[in-house]
Specification:
By secondary structure, this protein is of the alpha/beta class. The protein contains eleven helices and nine strands. It has two domains: 2-174, HUPs (Rossmann fold), CATH 3.40.50; 187-279, Pantoate-beta-alanine ligase, C-terminal domain (Pantoate--beta-alanine Ligase, Chain: A,domain 2, 2-Layer Sandwich), CATH 3.30.1300.10. Helices cover 39% and strands 20% of the residues. It is globular and about 60 Å long.
Length: 280
Amino acid sequence: MLLIKGSNEVKKAISFLKNSRKTIGFVPTMGALHNGHISLIKQSKAETDITLCSIFINPLQFNNEIDLNTYPIKIENDIEMLINEGVDLLFLPDKSEIYPENYKPIDFSFDGLDLIYEGKLRPGHFMGVANVLKIFFEIIEPNYAYFGQKDYQQTLIVRKLIELLKIPIDIKVCEIVREETGLAMSSRNVRLNETNRSNSGFLFKILNELKEDLNNISVEEAIELAKSKVALNAEASCEYLDVLNRDNLEKWEEGYIKNQSIILSAVKYGNVRLLDNILI
C-alpha cells in the first residue's frame, strides 16, 4: 500500500493510474476503522481497479468540541487493517493540507435537507461534510465513491453535492454492517460501557418490529409504540424516529409507500448516539 500525505502527490499518482485506464474507487473515512469500513473497501476492490482510502478527522463537521476531542484515533491499527485488505493507496493529510490558512467554508444549498433530523441536531454538520468531500473529490477525481447506509441522510447530501458540483462520480451506498447484537457498526461504539454494548441491539429489534407493525396499525401508532419501547431501556432516549420518503426524508401525507420509504432513527444511549435505519 502506498501512503501519501500531500495532495499534489495524490494527484500525480491518480493521473498516472487514469492514463493507464485504471478505475478509481474512493472510500473516505475518519479512521477508527471497523468492519463497516472494511465492507466498503471490499466492494470497491470488487468493482474498481484501484482502491484509495483517506483518513482525515474533519473538524468542520463537528458542532460539538467534546465529540471532536473524544473521537477515537487508532492510526497504526487502521494502517494495518488497510494493508491486510489490499488497499492500494492511503491518503493521510494533515489539517493544513486540506484547509489552508484563511480557508472559507462554502455554504452549499441543499434545499433544507441539511437542516432536518441529523442536520437539526448537529448544526453545520453537513456543510462540514460537503466542504471536505468537495476538496477530496477535486483532488482524487474518483470514478466511484463508497458510503455506508448507516449514515443515510449523509448519502443523500453527498448525491446532492455531486449534482451541484456537476462532477461524474458514481456514488455507491453499501448495506449496514452489524455487530452480533444487531447494533449498526460505528467508530463511536467503543465508547459504550460493557452493559450498554451487550444490550445495544435493542434499537435494531425495535425498528424491525416497527416495520412489521406498519402492516397492522397506522404509521402514527406504530411510531409511538416504537418510541415507547425505546424508553423502556435504561439510559436510552429517542432523538428522532420516523417513517419517511427515502428520496428526500419528507413525511408522507398519508401512510407510507413500500419500496420508497425508510425508517430513520437516532437514539442517545448513555454517552453515545446510535444511528440506524431500515429500508421498507
